[in-house]
Amino acid sequence: MGDLTHTELPIYDLLVIGAGPTGMACAIEAQRAGFTSVLLDKGCLCNSLFHYPAHMTFFTTPELLEIGDMPFSSPNQKPNRNEALEYYRKVAEHYALDVRQYENVERVTGSDGDFAVHTTDRFGRYLHHRARKLVIATGYYDLPNYLGLPGEDLSKVKHYYHEPHPYYGLDVLVIGGKNSAAIAALDLWRHGARVTLVHRGTEMHRHVKYWILPDINNRIKNGEITAHFSSKVANITEDDVTLTTPSGNVTISNHFVFALTGYHPDFDFIERLGVTLDAANDRCPVCDPSTLESNVPGIYLGGVIVAGERTNEIFIENGRFHGKLIAENLKRKLSVAQQISA
Question: Residues 163-174: pLDDT tens digits?
Fold first, then answer.
C-alpha cells in the first residue's frame, strides 16, 4: 500500500475508526446495505474489551450484546469477558470484516466524498486509506482520567486492572469508588493482596453493581479491606502512599497503586477532525441525532463518544444500534452521489 499514489488506492464507501462492538456494527450494517467498508484500530479487535479484567462479568445479558443479528449463546445469564471476545471474533469472521489491527490514526485529510486517513503501524511505518465517509467509534477506555498526583508517573501506578496474581502478598492501594475499583479491590483481596481503598465520596458509589456492592461493603465492615472515605491521595513514592483523610494525613506502606478513576473519549482527536464539542452540554460532539452525522459533512459518530463526558449513558447495549442509523443515511447520500457521478 505504501507504494501506491493517493489516486491509485482503493476508495472505500465507509471507513470506521475503532473496531469495537459499535464500530463492527457500523461496518456490518454498511456492508448489508451494499457498501464497502474497512475498520481501523490502534489495538486488537475489541481492544477495550480485551483490556477489561480477565474474569470480568458483564452487567447485561447475552442478547443485549448481539450485533449483526447473530445470536450470542452463553450458558451464563451474564456472559464474561472471554465469552464476549469469542463472540465478536466469530461475528468478524462471519461477516468477513476487513479489520486493520494495530494501525494508529495520526490525522485525516480530504473532505466528504474523498477522505484520506493517515496511519502508522506498530513499527512506525506510514500508511493511508481513502474513504467516502467516516465513522468515529473510538470509545473512551484508552484514555484514563489522570489525577495529577506527585508520583503518579511511577511504574507501580496502574490505570487498568487485569488480574490479581502478580500482587499476592503485597500492599496494594485502589483509588476509586465505582465498579472498577470495587471489582479490583475484591479480586485482589481474594487472591492474597493486602488491600486499601481510598475514595473521595462518603461511601461506595450507589451505581456499583447490585451483587458487588454488598460484597465490598461487608469486606470493609469486617476489616478485610481497609477503606478511607472522604479521602484522597496526596503523594505517591516508591515505598509508600500518603492519604489526606478527615483525621489528617496518613502514610501507609505500598507496593502498587490502581488509580481506577474513570476514562474519557479522545476529545483532542475529535476536535482535530473539525467536529464541534458543545461545552455547555458535557462536551457532546455536535451531530444530527437522527443520522449521527457530525457538523463535518461525511463524518459520523458512533458509540459512547456521542455522549461526550457522560460516558455512563451509552454502552454496547444501545451503541450497537448506531450502525443502522448511519447505514440508512449512507443509502440516501451515497446512492445519490453515485447517481450523479454516473
Answer: 999 999 999 999
